[in-house]
Amino acid sequence: MVTRGSRVRRLPGSELVLIAVAFLAYMTIRALGVGDRERALVHARSMLRWEHLARIDVERGAQHVVAAPGFGRELFTAVYVWGYWPVVIGALIYTRFRHPRRYRVLRNALFVSGALGLVCFATFPVAPPRMLENFVDTVPAGSRAHFVAHPSGLVNAYAAFPSFHIGWFAIAWLAVVWGRALIAQLAGLAATVLMALAVVVTANHYVLDVVGGLLISGLGLAVAYRFEMHQRRDGRERQWPLSRSA
């Protein structure tokens, strides 16, 4: 007979296994895309053409506002570099201990959307704008910020589409502010809009990357939510120790 306490001890191990599998899958996709620079550049220029047809090709214009050294450039660069992981990891930690059911939904949403993203990265590699002419990489090369934003060997250089930098950021905020006071929800929305601007004006993503990241992350969230509801209807939630309600 398995006691509740033993389930609590086993849960962190299962989380580590899931993370390890996801990391290995990502590194495999990265290895497959290492030699795809020319293909990724072709796709990047196609993205700009599609955006031009849709009249949403605002990347160059937006960058000109912040490309010159100054407060705007520093602000958006700081948001892009330092604002992402604290929110995503913080949301996972917060929901894990305060809202376990919500944590499971967020965690599963990251895995589902991440799996869909890996398919996109493998089949449609896209170079970010900073690799194209007439764009400026606002993150200084050789700086600590550059290592955090583009750690060599850990990120796929040709994985601009979709942008999980905005997609995961958005659903992480949603998990934290859901059901909270209106001011908290507005703060989450403002932070998400700021990050959406930051990934574009720093020349790391196209507008279509932002749209794709939000749609795929939202789809992952919808699938994870439906799965959680199915588990609860089937009475399987008792297999997971819940110290608090969602």
List keywords for this structure.
single chain; 246 residues; mainly alpha; 10 helices; disordered N terminus
Low-confidence stretches: 1-10, 237-246
Could you tell me the number of beta strands? 0
Question: Residue share in helices?
Answer: over 70%
How many domain modules? Answer: 1
User: What is the gyration radius calculated from CA atoms?
Assistant: 19 Å
- Biggest beta sheet summary: none
By secondary-structure content and strand pairing, the structural class works out as mainly alpha
The succession of helices and strands, N to C, reads: HHHHHHHHHH
Coarse morphology: globular
- Total number of helices: 10
Distance between the termini: 27 Å
Mean pLDDT: 83
Please describe the topology of this protein.
Blueprint (H helix, E strand, L loop, with lengths): L3 H30 L3 H18 L4 H8 L4 H12 L1 H15 L1 H24 L20 H6 L14 H14 L4 H20 L5 H27 L13
In short:
The chain is mainly α and 246 residues long. It has helices at 4-33, 37-54, 59-66, 71-82, 84-98, 100-123, 144-149, 164-177, 182-201, 207-233. The relative contact order is 0.17.
